Amino acid sequence: MTLRLRNARLEDGPLVDVIIDDARITSVGPADPNPATEPRRGEELDLAGSLLVPAPAEPHAHLDKALTADVVPNPAGDLGGAIEAWLAHRPTITKADYVERATTAAELSLANGCTALRTHVDLGVDIGTTGVEAMLEVKAALGSVMDLQLVGLVAGLTSPGGAEELALVREALDMGLDVVGGVPHIEADPARAIDLVLEVAGEYGRPIDLHADENLDPASHDLETLARRVSATGFEHPVVASHCVALSMKPEAEQHRIAEAVAAAGVMVVSLPQTNLYLQARNIATAPPRGLTALAALRRAGAVIAGGGDNLRDPFCPVGRADPMETASLLVMAGHLPPDAAYHCVSGGARAAMGLEPVAISAGRPAELLALPSASISGAVAAAPGGRLVIRRGRVVGAARWSADEGQALLE
Ligand SMILES: [Zn+2]
Q1: Under CATH, what is the fold of the domain 58-353?
Q2: 183 alpha carbon to ligand 1 midpoint, in Å?
Q3: Burial class of residue 107, CB neighbours in 10 A (0-12, 13-18, 19+)
Q4: CATH number assigned to the domain with residue range 2-54+359-411, chosen from the 4 options 3.90.1150.10, 2.30.40.10, 3.90.960.10, 2.130.10.10
Q5: CA 102, CA 108: separation in Å to the nearest integer?
Q6: pLDDT band at 236, cuts 50/70/90?
Q7: Boundaries of CATH 2.30.40.10 in the chain?
Q8: Which of 68, 205, 234, 261 is buried most deeply by CB count within 10 Å?
Q9: How many angstroms is it from 61 CA to the middle of ligand 1?
Q10: 341 C-alpha to center of ligand 1: Å?
Q11: Cβ < 5 A residues, ion ligand 1
C-alpha cells in the first residue's frame, strides 16, 4: 500500500511531500504547491503544515500496574510504600483485570504517538505467570497497531526461595517473554543478582532491562557493576539500565568515570522523570534532590539515553498521561536537557533502548511517524498538542483526535 503525506513540515522548516510504500519511506521531496489531483481518500493525506517527526516509543511502562491508583493507595508516597502496597494487592488481580487496564494504558500511549512500547511485568511465586499470560494476550490483540515488548520483572533472586523465582523467569521465557528484568538494588546480593540475570538472558539469547540504583544512596553500585560485568563477559545482547538515580548523588568525577564505563559497555540508560520525581527524596525537607540520573555525565560520555513514562496512575505514581511529550517536557525542566534532545530521548533513544531500527524522515527509513499541529519540536514538547496522526509500518494507526475526516478514512 502506498501512502502520500502532503505538506508535511520538517523540523528545519520546509514543507515536503512524503511517499511511503508498505512499511518504509520511499521519497521525501519539496511539497508540490499545485497537485494535479485532489487527495485520494484513503491514499493521500494533506497534513497542511503539521510537523512530521519520527514517532516516539515508550521504553519503560508497567502495564500490569497501570490505572490502579484509586484502589491501591500509597500513603507514604515513597518507593518502599509503593512496593508494600502493590505486593499486598497483586495476588487479588484477575487476568481479565490485567488485560483490561493494560489495553487501556497501551491504547493511550498509542493515541499519543507511541508505535512501540516496552512494559515490565511482575513475576513472583505469589502470582506465578498470570501477569505474563495477560500481557501476552494484550500483545497479540494489539499486534496489528503497535509493537509490545515484555520484560519479566523479578525480585528475590538472591533470597531464600530465589531458585523458585529464577524458575519462573525461565518458564516465562519459554512462554514468550522478550526481555529479562530485575531489581538488583533491593536484592540481598545485587552483584550476584546481576550475574544471574546475565546468565539466564545469555542462555536464552535475550536482552536485559534492569531497574538499577533506584535510590539516592551514593554507595549503590548496580549501574557500574552491570557495565563492568557486561564488558567482562562480552554479553552480546542489548542491555538497558533503567532509573540509575544514585548516579546523580555521586561526586562529579565518579559520575564521569562510571558514565565512561557505561558508554564503553554499550549499556543504555532509561531516565524516568515522572516516577522518580514523585517517589524520591520524600524524607529530605531542605534542597531535595530531583531524583533523576546524571544526564549530563551520561551525555558527555556518549551513552545512549532514553526517556520513559514508567508508572501510570498506580501506587508508584498517581498521575501521568501516557504522553511522551509529558516525559520530554519533564526531561527539559527537571533534567535540563534541550527540548530537541529531550524529544530524541523519547523517540530515537527509546527505539535504540528497545533494539528497534532507527527512524528518520528520509528515504529508506521505517515509516514510524507522528504528525502533530506544531511549528517545531520544542513547541510540540511545550504544548503537547492534540490532533495527532500516528503512522506505524506505513499505516495510519492513530487518528482519534485528528480534526479532518481524512485521518479517520485512513484508519478504515
Ligand atoms: Zn519501572
Answers
A1: TIM Barrel (3.20.20)
A2: 9
A3: middle
A4: 2.30.40.10
A5: 10
A6: very high
A7: 2-54+359-411
A8: 68
A9: 6
A10: 22
A11: 310
